[in-house]
Write a structure and sequence with these properties.
Shape: globular
Oligomer: single chain
Mean pLDDT: 95
CATH class: Mainly Beta
CATH architecture: 6 Propeller
Largest sheet: 5 strands, mixed
Number of strands: 24
Strand order of the largest sheet: 1-17-15-14-13
Low-confidence stretches: 4-11
CATH topology: Neuraminidase
Radius of gyration: 17 Å
C-alpha cells in the first residue's frame, strides 16, 4: 500500500442543488452501471443474474434506444462500466459474500456497440493479492467491488466495505487491461468513507471527470482530488432521498447522473439528473 488512510476533512455536507428523476424501463430493474458515451448518449447494464446486455439510453428521457449483446461472457455480477475513449470496460467482479474467485474485467469497442446488435469481447481475470481466504473473517469483508473508473491510463477499483465491525474503509486497486491475462491486484490506497455502516458509507459507483473522482454511496456523492498519492475530499453532497443507488456518471463539472435499482420498500428503478450545489 503506497499510503495510509485518507480521512475526511470536510466540515459541511451540501444538499444537491436540483434533481430530476426519470422512471426507467422494467428491463433495467437491476441497473448497476452507467456511463456517458457523449453528451446525448448513455450506456447502462444490469447486475448479476441478467443477460450480458448493454443498453443505450436517451439521458433526457431514460428511454432505451438500443440493446447490444456482449458475446462469449456471462453476467455473473456486473457492477460498473467505464470508458477510456476507445473501449468500454465492464466490471464482472460483484462479490457480496467475498468468496468469488472468478473475477474479471471485460472490454468491448463502444463504436462496434453503436452499429451492431452483437459484439465481440475481450477479458482479463483478476484477484486481490491481499485476500487469503474465501470468504475471509467478518472483520476483513472488503473484497467486493462495485465502482470502477478509468483515469490516467489505469482502471481504478474502489471496494464496497462490508466489514463487521464496520471500519468504513474503501480500498483502492489500480490495473491496466491486458487481454487474456491474469492479474493479481495490489492494494495501493485506502479511503476512510465514514463509520455509520455499509448502508451509508460503502462505495457503490463512481466516475472520474474534470480532474476529480466522484464516488457515490446510497445517500451521498463524495468528490475527491487525487494528488501526490493522496485522496483529498473536496465536497460531499447528500441526495434528496435514500435508495439503492448503484451507478454514477458525470457529464459536466458538478453535473451528474445517478441510477438506482428497484426495491419494493425504496421504490422503482430511476435515473436522476442532478446539479450539485456549488
Amino acid at each position: 500500500m503506497k499510503n495510509g488512510f485518507v480521512f475526511l476533512f470536510s466540515f459541511f455536507t451540501f444538499f444537491v442543488y436540483s434533481q430530476k428523476s426519470i422512471l426507467l424501463s422494467d428491463e433495467l430493474k437491476e441497473i448497476s452501471g452507467i456511463q456517458f458515451i457523449n453528451d446525448s448518449l448513455l450506456v447502462a447494464h444490469n447486475d448479476g443474474g441478467n443477460g450480458p446486455m448493454l443498453y443505450f439510453l436517451n439521458p433526457n428521457t431514460g428511454s432505451i434506444l438500443k440493446r447490444v449483446v456482449v458475446k462469449d461472457v456471462k453476467n455473473t455480477d456486473w457492477e460498473d462500466i467505464t470508458l477510456d475513449g476507445k473501449y468500454l470496460y465492464i466490471g464482472n467482479f460483484g462479490n457480496n459474500e467475498n468468496k468469488r474467485k472468478n473475477l474479471s474485467i471485460i472490454r468491448v469497442s463502444w463504436k462496434d456497440a453503436l452499429v451492431k446488435d452483437t459484439i465481440n469481447s475481450e477479458f482479463m481475470t483478476i484477484e486481490y493479492g491481499d485476500q487469503k481466504s474465501f470468504p475471509p473473517e467478518k472483520e476483513a469483508l472488503n473484497f467486493d467491488t462495485e465502482c470502477m473508473v478509468f483515469a490516467d491510463g489505469f482502471l481504478w477499483l474502489f471496494t464496497k466495505n462490508r466489514t463487521d465491525p464496520f471500519d468504513g474503509i474503501s480500498n483502492v486497486y489500480r490495473v491496466k487491461f491486458q487481454e487474456n491475462k491474469h492479474t493479481i491486484l495490489k492494494k495501493e490506497y485506502s479511503i476512510k468513507i465514514g463509520s455509520k455502516g455499509w448502508m451509508f458509507d460503502s462505495v457503490t459507483g463512481g466516475d472520474f471527470a474534470f480532474g476529480y473522482f466522484y464516488l457515490t454511496t446510497y445517500n451521498r456523492v463524495l468528490k475527491y482530488l487525487f494528488s501526490d498519492g493522496k485522496f483529498t475530499l473536496v465536497k460531499q453532497y447528500k441526495y434528496n432521498e435514500y435508495n439503492q443507488k448503484e451507478a454514477l456518471t458525470v457529464i459536466k463539472d458538478d453535473q451528474i447522473y445517478v441510477a438506482n435499482e428497484f426495491q419494493k420498500v425504496l421504490g422503482k428503478q430511476k435515473l436522476y439528473r442532478i446539479s450539485l450545489k456549488k
